[in-house]
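Appendix B, record 7
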Amino acid sequence: MTKLIGVIMAAGWGKRMKSKTPKVLHTLMGKPLIEFPLGTLKQLNIDSIFVILGSLTEPLKERLGERCTYIIQDPPLGTGDALKKILPYLKNNQETDVLVVPGDAPFINTRLLEEFGYSHQNSGCQASILTTIMENPYGYGRIIRDENSSLVRIIEESDLTSSQRNIQEVNASVYIFQASALLKYLPQLENQNQQGEYYLTDIFEKMKLDNLGIFVFCQEKNPEMLMGINSRKDLVKANRLLKEKIIEGFLESGVTIIDPESTYIEENVSIEQDVIIYPFSFLMGNTVIKSDAIIGPGALIKNSVIGNGCKIYYSEIEEATLEQGVKVGPFSHLRSGTYVKRGAKIGNYAELKNSVIGENTKVSHVSYLGDSTVGEGVNIGAGTIVCNYDGEKKHPTVIEDEVFVGSNSTLIAPLRIGKGAYIAGGSVINIDVPPEALALGRERQVIKEGWVKKRKERRKNRG
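Structure tokens (predicted):
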């Protein structure tokens, strides 16, 4: 088997995106575009992967980490100039094949690349091109063939004549070269075109002058598989295609999605069978939804684990874990570090952060718990808040099993409330409460008989 090197072309800024962000960092269903080709190449038997970057390198390096070798092209002088940057790595590997893929083509899969690779090897050619047929080929380089259907050249969109614009066979910007061909012909490229750039596609004309065969592999079925993302409009189309694919997969695996059009589910989400998802729900990141859960309507869940039989509606959950049978909502917010145990209920307008909620505990009605550990069978009354931040540091609160916290209570951390204690409604508690004790932290009520009548008389006399 010939040694194979992968190259991802990611140096282009993407002018048609009209953005301060490099094109390959724009997200498709929650994942940057560059992640798609990198993930595909990782699944192939590739000896090394190079990613060619442009001027803004740090965000891409931060995202991709050590999964590839970085090559910098700055200033950007075209695709031919970009690929020239790998020539030093090829001098001792001239029998190696180099697979080149664009960084903005999210739907290219391993099966297609494997088929392309086998066809290239069987062709005996030093270079191969992957093409497809598109009804609307705008933005793509066109494949020019002769009367024998052999490749003549590839012409970029900006250099097309009016008649050439009707050609529907397009260049998918996926190639395989023998390293020796790149070493010989890349230095011969010129920039005599409207853009003043070195086009990689011009290499094929150089090779044909030496009577070298160029193999063209046309993938006519599913041209969307080879679509590139060049504009926000393309990104919308790609989002729709990937969303449909993801949702179809879940429907086939036994998930009920009431209204797919109004439901958003990202690629890394895992959903078990017999889950029901209602409209206007957003499932994002590395979220796991276990069987028999009911999600929505109006749920937003990101990087969280939702246990069997949970019910979540009109609420936001991020970086949290819910055990079996937990109910959340409406209008609650579970923030990072929250862990809710079996059978607990998080009701109307409650907010939790970095807290553990025990089994069968109830937190309802405009309550806030932060940096708190709450035991089993606890009742957190309406309007209860934990004051965990003193302006400099955050402090913990521990509420043991079977505690009753009355409505409108303020718990000032650091604080421990013992098992079975009772906090009277309206209390401000800043001292530890022993088990089974009653704690009251409020002023004695004062009543002044006849005060309103006397006040009215005073105002009348002043008038």
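Remarks on this record: The CA atoms of residues 416 and 432 lie 5 Å apart. The chain has two domains: 4-226, 341-463.
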